[in-house]
Amino acid sequence: MAAVRHRRGDVVAKAVEVLDTYGLADLTMRRLASELDVRPSALYHHFTNKQYLLAAVADELLERSLKPVEDGPWDARLTAAATGLRESLLAWRDGAELVATVHAFGLGAEKVDDHVAVTLEDSGLNEALRRVVTRTVLHYVFGHATAEQTHLQAASAGALESGDDMSWGAGQEFTAGLALVVDGVRARVSTLA
Amino acid sequence: MAAVRHRRGDVVAKAVEVLDTYGLADLTMRRLASELDVRPSALYHHFTNKQYLLAAVADELLERSLKPVEDGPWDARLTAAATGLRESLLAWRDGAELVATVHAFGLGAEKVDDHVAVTLEDSGLNEALRRVVTRTVLHYVFGHATAEQTHLQAASAGALESGDDMSWGAGQEFTAGLALVVDGVRARVSTLA
DNA sequence: ACCTGAACACCGTTCAAGT
DNA sequence: ACCTGAACACCGTTCAAGT
Fold first, then answer.
1. Quick check: A104 and B146 CB within 8 A?
2. Where is the HTH tetR-type domain (chains A, B) (predicted)?
3. A149: Cβ contacts below 8 Å, ≥ 6 apart
4. Is-contact B145 B86, C-beta < 8 A?
5. Which of A3, A103, A116, A178 has the smallest number of CB atoms closer than 10 Å to its CB?
């Protein structure tokens, strides 16, 4: 049969397409292979296993959608970093779950750490504290976005019980919780002044 | 063959055992069935699908390990609730991931909301804010515990690169990040006085 | 460098039928 | 009430071999 012949980048691009169209559960090696008109085993020429493929997909999503944070005071930048990351994750079907998993596994998505960490550079906090803040914010963003996206998909498929949707809207909920964390950071920064 | 005949509770108990011994990836319907000396299809008499089984397992874990928070000022209680939840999740193999997933899907683990929420009852915060705080703390605990547990299993299996382990220890990291959030809450409570 | 063919060892779920 | 038997439609991964 006509050997289609792809490069690693083609495979990642198609994987992003499959993810965004059909969801993470349908992003299987076999499904991806068939979309590329190739046998499943061919994928193992490009990636040692599925985890590495997913890591590459997560990195690609972030590369495409995560914008650098603009200048300003540290608290505005920290808030913008968290908000921008959330929007970036929500921009892709199952983006939050994918990036959070890859990040937790330590195979990719390392750029999100920097994305948040750089906003604290002129906060006056020491490095250990900056790391704690960075991780706390990341856990919050990942947790909130994953729950939001999971909840949405659970509602769209299957029984969508209204009344369970927060009267606020998830965006305002997110902002309010984030402000809580930023205030906690501010309490530490102000003791340095 | 000798029909073994189990009740729903037996199935859940065995599932907890399989989870804690072999991990979430090995908690399959087929594996569980074989441990119970039963055909896979028999499980569908007790649970409509795997999601519901997992929800029951998550509830069972929490039932067995999550202790109520002792009396005291609201901030000490909030801290204790979060710390107790973290310890409860870490007490079981893949406990954090399982409970977080079930919770996000809304099929179980609802008791964790109350576990945290009750500590805020005499904080003076209004209900909307108490909900924000509760969710923020839950996201933080789930995120931190899942990352910690995933990282541990990634390190135990496969390449364990040292130097990547935080110089603090995960417990102190957790405590420091939690204090951040609690300080953020305190900033709101103090404006009420 | 990239792919096929064929296999291995698995999954979740359904459903008619048995006791 | 609880289980079997048999099937359906899938998984990830390996590996020798082809071009």
1. yes
2. 5-65
3. A89, A90, A94, A95, A96, A97
4. yes
5. A3
For B73-126, write each residue's pLDDT tens digit. 999 999 999 999 999 999 999 999 999 999 998 899 999 999 999 999 999 999
User: Domains along chain B?
Assistant: 8-48 (1.10.10), 69-192 (1.10.357.10)
Closest by CA to A151, choosing from A81, A86, A97, A87, is A97
User: Six-digit token pair at A152?
Assistant: 């949405």
Residues 51-110 of B with CB under 7 A from strand C: 51
How does DSSP assign B142-177, residue by residue? HHHHHHHHHHHHHHHSS---TT-S-TT-HHHHHHHH
Return d(Cα B126, Cα B120) in angstroms, integer: 10
Q: What is the distance, to the nearest Å, from the Cα of residue A72 to the centroid of all Cα atoms in its chain?
A: 24
Asked if strand D contacts A2 at the CB level, meaning under 7 A, the answer is no
DSSP A31: H
Q: Looking at chain A, which runs of residues are DSSP E strands?
A: none
Q: B128: Cβ under 7 Å from strand D? A: no
A18: its two tokens? 């499959």
Cα-to-chain-centroid distance, residue B171: 16
Helix or strand holding residue B48 (H, E): none
pLDDT tens string A94-130: 999 999 999 998 899 999 999 999 999 999 999 999 9
Distance A107 CA to C7 C1' (A): 30
Residues 23-42, chain B, CB closer than 7 Å to nucleic strand C: 26, 28-31, 40-41
Quick check: A124 and B124 in contact, CB under 8 A?
no
* Per-window interface: B 108-147 vs A, CB < 8 A: 128-129, 131-133, 135-136, 138-140, 142-144, 146-147
Q: What is the C-alpha separation between A82 and B136, in angstroms, rounded?
A: 14
Residue B53 CA distance to nucleotide D6 C1' (Å) = 24
Contact between B16 and B57 (Cβ < 8 Å): yes
**Residue A45 CB: number of other CB atoms within 10 A?**
11
pTM of the model: 0.94
Measured CA to CA in angstroms, residue B147 lies from B92, B107, B137, B141, B184 at distances of 14, 22, 15, 10, 23
